[in-house]
Design brief:
heterotrimer; A mainly alpha (464); B alpha/beta (262); C mainly alpha (414); B: 262 residues; alpha/beta; Rossmann fold; 4-stranded antiparallel β-sheet; 11 helices; C: 414 residues; mainly alpha; MetI-like fold; 2 domains; 3-stranded antiparallel β-sheet; 3 strands; 5% strand; extended
Chain lengths: 464, 262, 414
């Protein structure tokens, strides 16, 4: 019996349970009402319906989830017990390859066998699959019936079906809210675990403070020592994300926010604000392509024309410039919020002293809004250093420790992508290094966010 | 202009308004007000909330310019010069006609920098020493010097409400204005701080033409020599303060000061 | 007391100059602000114009009107027995090559796309009777010729274009294949359908997972949760997840979904799960804001007539908050649709030449397809990449437009 068929059948059972339980509750309650005892009726008939339907579905569903995970093991066991399996090779890898092929043929995913041994196992496999498939379906249906019947017998006019159903609703809400925690724990645990394995191969000090990054040589068997010095990556990340991008984004974002909030007419503001926000909605892969296709070659030609050495077609400047543009709306909306949070009375006070608008902005509004703006810039930096596609496509792979913006540098995120794409065995130091880099990135962005939110929050409180 | 208002015209007025109308979009907030403000008096504007007294005050240093929908008609002169004339520079005007707001609004800077703000933007101080002189003098006049002289570089926002308001008055004084407009300067303060501000207004009288908006009639009676009663955008009655309070000529004024409405 | 200062002489020459200088500074500052806005906006315009300029060509293809003299051709087909099998056995690619050589000259192989025979096959299928006469059939040109005709190609191809134009057999047609085909090796043959379908499946998984969980979390936190350390942890987790770089989610997907749970690599299922974890915090935050804006008086009214807390929320609060939640969901989905980095981590960068049939089949998505094509050396991919970007941007624009429309239509002021 196939999976979808069982699910469909169960859904049908659930619907029948709902309808019949509701009908029964309605009948019982009509009788109870007729006797004049109004307090004898507790829940609406619909809740009785849900109560029984849930009792029908949930135990069966739980069973199926367990079964899906257990059944393949049982199937394999019974196939191995078959006489045809005696001729299987003992070595685990080819053994599981043959079993896998046999299973694929048996379940119809593959037309013919490459290995004659698997052909012999197809029949036992098919038999075992059928056997356990039917067993699972029958058990699930039995459970559904049992659950439904049990619940059905509990229907009384005064049975508190609604309370039970609502308790389940509340429980599912609670479980949903746990997923956020589970995800966080999952991120931290997986990063920590893989990093731990990495650091058992490579000294953390060498990783954090080494200046030579060449994981390829480590993969080729030259040893892990001083192949994983991540300083050039950290520098490249800071150079692009925290320096070049911010040199673009802070003035443009701040001045745009100032112009749109303090000078522009409402119509201009109404149209320009969403237009600038579109910059943040453009997918990063588009920016990356744009940087690599248009900006980077132009910058290289420019650098060559003015005689700069080491100009590369993948440059820190190209990636940083485009990333800065992407960050503009981010800085601008944070600046907008911070300036708007400065009380109007400050502005009036300054204007009433005879200050011009720009003097008011430069000498009163910006100093007053500074904590909020700084917080916004920190958030922007945390976004910039976690950004991947622009640097992957435009910054390059050379781990240079250089301050020449026309040269190619590499970043943490670029290297994560580089290390994990391609077919590497999962246990090598090279692939695990990606997780160590991810851990560093995670910690840094987290700290930046915490600090930034603190600063912004403190500042908001100052004006409330 | 009514006959009565002409009678009240002052010789050599510092500021005078003639048939001033203010509109916010379609809505008319001030309906033709004419009034003279003299150098020797403290002039109080009283009236129920929403009567237009604050709006009118803000036309005197063109603070209404900052509201996009506001439109002013009529003529207001400062020393005979129309302040709404194109040749009038609003930056200069506001330096000459200072303003103190309802809620104390010191800048989030040090006490010293708060006072120095105006002289600095207008370039009134010749150097650091000169600025020190201006700051001390302004704080003394604002009656705050003795309280803050040891902590001039503390933040202005750390002061108490009353001190903050005196700091704002000091800030306005620092640019040597000719007129000081005060928009309910005590409404956010406790009685003791209020008394100090009133005392200060007393001392400043004569040196500056002072216009104060207040909803507190006792305060108007205490600090002012001239009182103008506004109602629904009209200037109902303008006269010597003691006359207005003891012998109002208009029925509406009488109703207001005896507490029928407001 | 210090000496009395002289009143400021506002009319003095020095003061006049100073004020003029201040106004000049004011104008400069205002101009700098305007400049920043215009510069930012023109960067956006520059980006869009560049993509349009390169990409619109990707939707067209150069075609050659090939005059095929069927009776004279080496084609052995019976017009009365045209079946798929007969066509498949007729060796049309070879026949097309021969015919092209007689019509276009020796270089015909370089001029026609390797898929040119498909157009001839379709023409025969549509009307078998053309086999008995000479017919003119439009067939796609090769990448080199295509480039030369549209913008700039190699000198030889430019010459060929000039020659064919003179013969009047060169034309430009809509490239239907770009919308219906999948990835390939030759730029004239590639299309976005495979990646598009992959995106649809991935988004479907993302939506199914993140929407219920996001809404349930928002409801729990906003309506039921007590303010204690436990809900604080949930809140902190959600806010952090919203700020974690997307590539970290890719690492999570790789190590948990692929290496631990052994889910299929490169599949829309895993991609959707990974993106769902990213999208969920966005939905939670938007959902909480929407729920918060439902006034307490409505809850009080419902509770007052004896509704249970669950009934209050599901019958009153949720329907009122739904437009806001949907707006947030669409915005989150739009972000997920444009996301690339985490999907690279879980192997969705494979070369997928057939559209995925289900959520467990190997698939790729639009942004990843753009990334893959951007790496191709062949010049013909530039316009295809840009064309795919146009499609992606059009979808994002439509989604954001829908979100704005929903917000404006259902925005209620209490």
């Amino acid at each position: 019996m196939t999976g979808p068929a069982i699910l469909l059948l169960l859904a049908g059972l659930g619907a029948i349970a709902w309808v019949s339980a509701r009908a029964r509750a309605l009948r019982l309650q009509t009788v109870a009402r007729a006797t004049g005892r109004r307090d004898a009726v507790h829940s609406l008939p619909g809740y009785h319906g849900w109560y029984v339907a849930l009792w029908t579905l949930i135990p069966a569903a739980i069973f199926l989830i367990i079964w899906v995970n257990v059944a393949p093991g049982l199937v394999t066991q019974s196939v191995l017990a078959d006489p045809a399996a005696q001729s299987l090779p003992l070595d685990g890898f080819s053994r599981s390859a043959i079993l896998g092929e046999a299973r694929a043929i048996a379940s119809g995913n593959q037309a013919g066998a490459f290995n004659p041994l698997s052909q012999g196992l197809v029949e036992p496999y098919r038999a075992a699959l059928d056997k356990y498939g039917i067993a699972g379906a029958v058990l699930a249906l039995v459970l559904a019936f049992a659950g439904g019947a049990f619940a059905f017998t509990r229907i009384r006019p005064d049975f508190r079906a609604r309370t039970r159903v609502e308790r389940l609703v509340m429980a599912s809400l609670l479980i949903a809210s746990l997923i956020a925690i589970i995800t966080t724990v999952g991120i931290v645990a997986s990063l920590l675990w893989e990093s731990f394995r990495f650091f058992s191969m490579v000294n953390p000090i060498d990783f954090l403070f080494g200046t030579k990054w060449s994981p390829q040589s480590a993969a080729m068997g030259y040893g892990n020592d001083d192949a994983f010095g991540a300083v050039p990556l950290f520098w490249g990340t800071i150079f692009i994300g925290a320096i070049i991008a911010m040199i673009v984004a802070i003035p443009l974002g701040l001045m745009s926010a100032i112009y749109l909030t303090q000078y522009a007419s409402p119509t201009v503001r109404k149209w320009m604000k969403p237009t600038l926000e579109m910059l943040a909605g453009v997918p990063t892969v588009v920016y990356g392509y744009f940087a690599a296709l248009t900006i980077a070659p132009a910058l290289r030609d420019f650098a060559v024309a003015i005689g700069i050495h080491g100009a590369s077609s993948e440059s820190a400047l190209a990636a940083g410039l485009v990333m800065g543009v992407m960050i503009i709306p981010f800085v601008s909306s944070m600046a907008d919020d911070s300036i708007a949070a400065v009380p109007q009375s400050m502005r009036d006070g300054s204007l009433a002293m005879g200050a011009t608008t720009s003097e008011t902005i430069r000498k009163v509004l910006i100093p007053a809004a500074l904590p909020g703006v700084v917080g916004g810039v920190l958030l922007a930096v945390s976004r910039a250093i976690g950004e991947t596609m622009i640097v992957v496509m435009a910054a390059g792979l050379a781990a240079n420790l250089t301050a020449n913006p026309f040269a190619s540098v590499t970043t943490v995120t670029t290297q994560i992508v580089q290390l994990l794409t391609g077919d590497q065995e999962f246990d090598s130091a090279k692939t695990l290094a990606a997780f160590a880099l991810g851990l560093v990135l995670f910690i840094v962005t987290l700290l930046l966010n915490i600090v930034a939110l603190r600063v912004v929050k403190k500042y908001r409180e100052a004006y409330e | 202009m009514t006959e009565e208002q002409i009678k009240l015209a002052i010789e050599n007025p510092k500021m005078s308004a003639r048939d001033v109308k203010v509109f916010y979009g379609e809505k008319q907030a001030i309906k033709g007000v004419s009034i003279d403000v003299g150098m020797d008096h403290v002039t109080a504007f009283i009236g129920p909330s929403g009567c237009g007294k604050s709006t009118f005050l803000r036309t005197l240093n063109r603070m209404n310019d900052t509201v996009a929908s506001a439109r002013v008609e009529g003529e207001i002169t400062l020393d005979g010069e129309n302040i709404y004339a194109p040749s009038m520079d609003v930056v200069q005007l506001r330096a000459r006609v200072g303003m103190v707001f309802q809620k104390p609004n010191p800048f989030p800077k040090s006490i010293y920098e708060n006072i120095a703000y105006g002289p600095r933007i207008h370039g009134l101080a010749a150097g650091k020493a000169d600025m020190d002189v201006i700051v001390e003098k302004s704080l003394r006049r604002a009656g705050l010097w003795d309280e803050v002289k040891d902590r001039l570089h503390d933040s202005g926002t750390a002061l108490s409400g009353g001190q903050q308001q005196r700091l704002c008055i000091g800030r306005a004084i620092a640019v040597e204005p000719e007129v000081i407009l005060m928009d309910e300067p005590c409404s956010a303060l406790d009685p003791i701080a209020t008394a100090k501000i009133e005392e200060l207004i007393h001392e400043l009288r004569g040196r500056y033409a002072i216009v104060i908006v207040t909803h507190n009639m006792q305060q108007a009676a205490r600090v002012s020599q001239r009182t103008a009663f506004f109602h629904l955008g009209d200037l109902v009655e303008y006269g010597v303060t003691s006359d207005i309070f003891t012998n109002p000529r208009q029925e509406r004024t009488k109703d207001y000061i005896t507490g029928r409405y407001g | 007391m210090t000496a009395v200062r002289n009143p400021t002489d506002w009319k003095s020459e020095a003061m006049r100059k100073r004020i003029a200088g201040r106004y000049a500074a004011e104008r400069r500052f205002k101009f700098a602000g305007l400049f920043a806005v215009v510069l930012s906006a023109s960067f956006l315009a520059f980006l869009l114009v560049t993509m349009m300029g390169n990409g619109l060509r990707g939707f067209t293809r150069t075609e050659i009107a090939l005059k095929v003299d069927f009776p004279a051709s080496p084609l052995l087909l019976d017009p009365k027995a045209i079946t798929d099998e007969a066509l498949a056995n007729a060796n049309l690619p070879m026949v097309t090559g021969t015919v092209a050589k007689t019509v276009l000259g020796e270089k015909a192989d370089d001029l026609l796309s390797p898929t040119a025979w498909i157009s001839i096959r379709d023409a025969i299928k549509a009307d078998p009777m053309i086999l008995s006469r000479t017919a003119t059939i439009s067939v796609p040109a090769s990448t080199g010729l295509d480039l030369a005709a549209k913008s700039k190609g190699s000198p030889e191809m430019e010459a060929e274009v000039a020659r064919l134009k003179q013969q009047g057999i060169l034309s430009t047609g809509f490239n239907m294949g770009f919308l219906t085909a999948s990835d390939g090796t030759d730029p004239t043959q590639v299309g976005i359908w495979g990646a598009f379908k992959g995106s649809l499946l991935t988004m479907l998984v993302t939506l199914i997972l993140s929407f219920p969980v996001g809404v349930a979390t928002a409801l729990y936190l906003e309506e039921y949760a007590a303010k204690n350390w436990w809900t604080d942890i949930i809140e902190v987790s959600i806010n952090n997840l919203a700020a974690v770089p997307s590539i970290i989610f890719g690492l999570l997907g790789l190590s948990i979904f692929l290496n631990l749970a052994h889910l299929p690599r490169s599949a829309a299922l895993v991609g959707g799960m990974t993106l769902a974890l990213m999208t969920m915090p966005v939905i939670v935050i938007a959902g909480r804001n929407a729920i918060k804006s439902v006034p307490p008086s409505i809850r009080d009214a419902a509770l007052g007539i004896g509704a249970s807390p669950v009934q209050v929320v599901f019958q009153h609060v949720l329907p009122l908050a739904l437009p806001g939640i949907l707006t947030g969901t669409i915005i989150g989905m739009a972000r997920a649709l444009g996301e690339t980095a985490p999907l690279l981590m879980i192997g969705m960068r494979a070369f997928i030449a057939t559209p995925p049939g289900g959520i467990t089949d190997p698939a790729t998505v639009l942004p990843v397809q753009i990334f893959l094509w951007s790496d191709e050396v062949s010049k013909g991919f530039v316009e295809k990449t840009s064309a795919a970007i146009i499609v992606l941007l059009a979808f994002l624009l439509a989604m954001n437009g829908l979100a704005i429309y929903l917000r404006n239509k259902f925005e209620t002021r209490w």
